[in-house]
Amino acid sequence: MHRVHQAEKLREELMLDLDEIARQGARRMLAEALEAEVEFYIEAARGERDERGHALVVRNGYAREREILLGAGAVELKAPRVNDRRVDEDGDRQRFKSVIVPPYMRRSQKVSELLPLLYLHGLSSGDFIPALEEFFGSEASLSASTITRLTERWQSERESFMSRDLSRRDYVYVWVDGIHTGVRLGRDERLCSLVMVGARLDGAKELVAISDGYRESEASWAEFLRDLKKRGMRAPVLAVGDGALGFWAAVRDVFPTTRHQRDWVHKTRNVLDSLPKSVQRRAKGAIREISCAENKIEASKAIEAFASEFGAKWPKAVSKIASEKEQLLAFYDYPAEHWRHLRTTNPIESTFAPVRARTDLTKGPGSREAGLAMIYKLLEAAEGRWRKLTGSQVVALVRAGARFVNGELVEGSEENEEKDAA
C-alpha cells in the first residue's frame, strides 16, 4: 500500500513537472518569437537616420513583465521595446506594435475561443474549473464566480448585438442555417439556434444575427427576419441555405425580392441518402458535374444526364434536384468570382463542425440564454478568420442591379432593356 501511495505521488509530481516544462517551453518560444519580430522591424529601418547620422529606430530595453494566458498555461513575459523616432506624413510618431502579442493583450485568441467551446460542450460551472485548470494550469485563476461573470457578460453582449441598428449595414448576400447542438436543456430538449451571416458591399463577411429557434420552423424564421427588418436591415439580393429550412417561406413574406440559392453541400448529402451505397460514389461525381458546370446550360444538361442515369431506379433522388433546379442554379446569375461562396453555407458549417461532432453530451449550459451566448462567442471568435469574397470589388455592382449571365457582366444591360421596353 505504501508503494502504491509513493507511485501515485511520483506520478503527480511528474505531471506537475511536465506542465511546468510545457509552460516554460511556451514562454521561451514566445520570447524568441518576439525578439525575432523586433529584430526584423529594426533591420527594415536600419538605413533611416537623423541629421547627425543616428539610427531612428533602436532597441529600448523591455516592457514591464505581464502574465499572458496561453494554451500551455499562464506565463510571465517581458516583451522587448523599440524606440521609434520616425514621423509619418501627418507628423505623428510611428510606433512599433507587436502582432504576436498586441499591447494590453492578456489572453491569447485560442484561449478566448476555448472558453465558450468548453462551456457549450456541456460542462457545468462545477466541472468547468478543474477542466480548465487541467488544460491551463492552476495559475489560470478561473473560479466559479469568474465563470458566472463571463457567461453573464456574454449574454449581455449577445443581447446588445441583437438590438443594434442595421440601417447603416448593407448585406448583399446572406447565408442562413439552423444550428442543432448536442447540448441538452431538459429531458428531451436540445439547443437550436438560427444563424445568419452576411456579405457587405466591401465583400467582408460578418455575423448578422443569432437567435433562439424551435426546430427551424417557419414561425421562428419569420420572427427572426421581421426583427432584422424592424431594425433597418435592407433586403439581401440572394440568400443561401438548406432547402429543408422553414426560412424560405418566411423570407418570401418578409423580403419578397430576395432570391433563393440552395446549399449544394446539404443537397448532395440528401440525394446520396436516397441512394444505395453501391452507387453513391458515381452519383456524387454526377452531382459535382452539375454544381461545377461551366455555365447554366451545361448544368441543365448535367441534370438531364443525372436523371437519365439514376431516374428509372431511384426517382426520389432525382426529384430532389429536378424539383429545385431554379434555386440550385441561381448562383449562375451572379459574378463567377462569387460562385464558390454562393454554393454553400460553409462559413456557418465550418464554424460549428467541432460542436456538432459532440452529440452524446447530457449536461448543458442551464438556459437558452446561456447556450445562445456561448454560440455567439464562438461565431464572434471565428468571424476574424472568415475570408472576404473573391472578387469583392464587384459586390457593389450586384447590389446596384447589374445583370450577370453565367457569371459575366452584361455591359449596358439596363440601357438595352429600357430601349426594348420603349
From TrEMBL:
Annotated keywords: Coiled coil, DNA recombination, DNA-binding, Transposable element, Transposition
Molecular functions per Gene Ontology: DNA binding; transposase activity
Pfam families in the cross-refs: Transposase_mut
Ranges in a coiled coil: 4-51
GO biological process: DNA transposition
InterPro entries per record: Transposase_mutator
UniProt similarity note: Belongs to the transposase mutator family.
Function comment: Required for the transposition of the insertion element.
Record-given protein name: Mutator family transposase
